[in-house]
């Protein structure tokens, strides 16, 4: 993520990447709950007859927590805390759980 103290733009925080707060959106859908929210969105906007949901995941993962543990096991707790600090605004913005308990290997 950091190279010589500089954040690689590929790993930049989402709130720096977009102008989410500068746009007056009518609705924001989250990928984690997309199927449910998309159905509600299509119904609310009366477009179910025009669009149909289509989801294709070439690499489906049934248990993301095991993948998270696998990746976190490769870095130290100090590095995990640094990631938590770097992405704290994204965690807040998208209502993600930033609690690192249970990730102490």
Give the strand content. Answer: under 5%
What integer value in Å does the Rg equal?
A: 17 Å
- Indicate the mean pLDDT: 79
Outline type: extended
Largest sheet: 2 strands, antiparallel
- N-to-C terminal Cα separation, in Å? 21 Å
Q: What strand line-up does the widest sheet have? A: 1-2
Total number of helices: 5
Content-based structural category:
mainly alpha
Low-confidence stretches: none
Helical proportion, percent range: 25-40%
Question: Topology of this structure?
Answer:
Blueprint (H helix, E strand, L loop, with lengths): L1 E2 L2 E2 L6 H4 L16 H11 L19 H9 L4 H10 L1 H6 L12
Antiparallel strand pairs: 1-2
Description:
The chain has 105 residues and is mainly α. The model has no long low-confidence stretch (mean pLDDT 79). The chain contains five helices and two strands. The chain is extended, with a radius of gyration of 17 Å.
Summarize the structure.
The chain has 105 residues and is mainly alpha-helical. The chain has five helices and two strands, in the order ββααααα. It has helices spanning 14-17, 34-44, 64-72, 77-86, 88-93, and strands at residues 2-3, 6-7.
Task: Kindly list the characteristics that best describe this protein.
38% helix, 5 helices, mainly alpha, 105 residues, two-stranded antiparallel ribbon, extended
């Amino acid at each position: 993520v950091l190279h010589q103290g500089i954040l690689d733009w590929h790993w930049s925080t989402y709130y720096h990447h977009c102008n989410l707060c500068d746009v007056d959106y009518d609705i924001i859908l989250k990928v984690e709950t997309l199927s449910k929210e998309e159905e509600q969105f299509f119904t609310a906007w009366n477009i179910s007859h025009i669009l149909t949901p289509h989801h294709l995941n070439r690499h489906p993962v049934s248990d993301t927590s095991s993948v998270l543990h696998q990746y976190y096991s490769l870095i130290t707790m100090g590095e995990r805390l640094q990631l938590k600090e770097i992405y704290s605004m994204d965690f807040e913005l998208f209502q993600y759980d930033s609690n690192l308990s249970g990730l102490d290997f």
